[in-house]
Specification:
The chain is mainly beta and 480 residues long. It is built from 5 helices and 38 strands. A hairpin with a 2-residue loop joins β17 and β18. The N terminus is likely disordered. This is Two component regulator propeller.
Length: 480
């Protein structure tokens, strides 16, 4: 196997806070502080890296894989590697390929050294596959010259026949709009009907077709630690009952009331690397994280974790409060529901809630509860479910399809006005389910102009138009 070293540019910054460079994030790495490809002597993989790496991958997947994967490997001061993030543009899912095991199981690397002291640093490699690993190239980033980033990808599931699709989309990106970055993860509609887009380089306000950009120069948003010219990446966003905009960006949370910005971090709140946001009917704001669920009532913070509840794990994914004020929490070790006087545990229940973690919930106008259940096991029965008011469960999936067992759901939106369910399916694209006609349509970047297999979040504006944040631009449903 030939090892190729390719210099693409050089950017060194010592003792910067670590950053996930790529869209697939792996949270098992323990270090939160490291530098980006730094060191007088840079971190290097072991001499037998290729053989070891390949031996830990899925052999069957390796025989048919084609495309490229960029990996960001965190190498600590004793040379232990850990996969931090990846951008997979091959025909094989990273989990099926066993990419994380392939990286983490290699021998000790040579750590980065500055002034004769070993330090923790991340290394980025570009892996080129064509029915096997053909080459490895090292990435050295010059972020000052980096003007944009996007991820298009190859869908893991074949989409519907293009002629059978009922919808079309308008795509906004850097080339045709004021969008500051193509890669976006969040989109929501505020109480005035205005659409907001959270990108990997700032926040955008979309008013009647006009974009206003909020970045580190004109807002309270911080800059990226490794590049002061870029604004922090917004990973989730929503609006509360008072029309305050709430964002999760890097480690912190932000509140914007239309004039003033408030930052909540590990100093003035329990927040540390929050995952998702939720606002209940009493205007309490909830944050899930690996330290339980934090709740902010506008004045005080409280936390639900394993020390004060029956939460099965502090690694929480989704949280929801229904109209009966019952708190539903999804963790990676099971789900619970906290009622006023008791806690219901679902690990040993007969319901679908034993199959996966609650990622998102929604209560419709009739009181039915809609669930997105996540499980990274291909053999699980996770996916979309509805708990009807009469207590009966219903599984939502196309006949003879494994869409929701092999691919996780990033977001869903129930358009109750049209009785349409929209599902953002990771590594595929967008699913439309016409409930009245029991008709399913799968939109990918191969059969439609949806630009990426990563559709991250969905919203409906005041006119009933559906919007989606993707890793290659913003999409808007065209009017018929």
């Amino acid at each position: 196997m030939k090892y190729i070293t390719l210099t693409i540019g050089l950017f060194i910054i010592n003792f910067a806070f670590g950053q996930h460079l790529y869209p697939e994030k792996y949270d098992d790495c323990k270090l939160s502080r490291f530098c980006l490809d730094c060191g007088d002597t840079k971190a290097e993989p072991p001499k037998d890296f290729v053989a070891e790496f390949l031996s830990n991958l899925n052999e069957k997947s390796l025989k048919k894989i084609k495309g490229s994967i960029e990996v960001q490997v965190l190498v600590d001061s004793i040379g232990k590697p850990c996969l931090l993030s990846a951008k997979n543009e091959t025909n094989i899912n990273s989990k099926k390929l066993r990419l994380q095991d392939g990286i983490s199981s290699t021998d000790k690397w040579s750590p980065a050294i500055s002034e004769n002291v070993a330090e923790s640093a991340s290394v980025s490699l570009l892996l080129i596959f064509d029915n096997g690993l053909k080459s490895i190239q090292r990435r050295e980033f010059n972020t000052k010259n980096q003007s944009n980033m996007k991820s298009v990808g190859t869908p893991e599931v074949k989409g519907s026949r293009a002629s059978k699709l009922s919808e079309s989309w308008t795509v906004f990106n850097q080339r045709n709009s004021k969008l500051p970055w193509d890669m976006s993860r969040a989109v929501f509609t505020d109480k005035d009907g205005i659409v907001w887009i959270g990108t990997d380089n700032g926040l955008v306000k979309m008013t009647d077709g006009t974009m206003e950009v909020f970045d580190t120069h004109n807002s309270g948003l911080k800059s990226e630690m490794y590049n002061k010219s870029e604004t922090v990446s917004i990973r989730d966003a929503t609006v509360d009952k008072l029309n305050n905009k709430w964002l999760i960006a890097n480690w912190d949370a932000y509140k914007y009331d239309g004039k003033n910005w408030t930052v909540f971090d590990s100093i003035n709140s329990p927040i540390n690397w929050a995952r998702k946001l939720f606002v209940d009917n009493s205007n309490n704001v909830y944050f899930t994280s690996w330290r339980g669920v934090s709740k902010y009532d506008g004045d005080k913070w409280t936390t639900i974790d394993t020390s004060n509840s029956k939460l099965p794990s502090n690694k929480t994914l989704g949280v929801f409060v229904d109209s009966k004020e019952r708190v539903w929490i999804g963790t990676f070790n099971g789900n619970i529901r906290i009622d006023a006087d008791k806690t219901v545990e679902y690990n040993n229940s007969d319901s679908p809630l034993k199959e996966g973690s609650i990622s998102k919930m929604y209560e419709d106008k009739d009181g039915n509860l809609w669930f997105d259940l996540y499980n990274d096991d291909d053999k699980s029965k996770a996916g979309m479910f509805v708990l009807r008011r009469n207590g009966e469960w219903e599984s939502l999936k196309p006949k003879n399809s494994e869409l929701f067992t092999k691919n996780s759901i990033n977001d869903f939106l129930l358009d109750e006005d049209k009785n349409i369910l929209w599902i953002a399916l990771n590594s595929v694209g967008l699913i439309k389910y016409d409930i009245n006609n029991d008709k399913w349509e799968t939109y990918t970047n191969e059969n439609s102009n949806i630009p990426s297999i990563h559709v991250m979040q969905l919203t409906k504006d005041k006119n009933g138009t559906i919007w989606g944040a993707t890793f290659a631009g913003l999409i808007k449903l065209n009017e018929k």
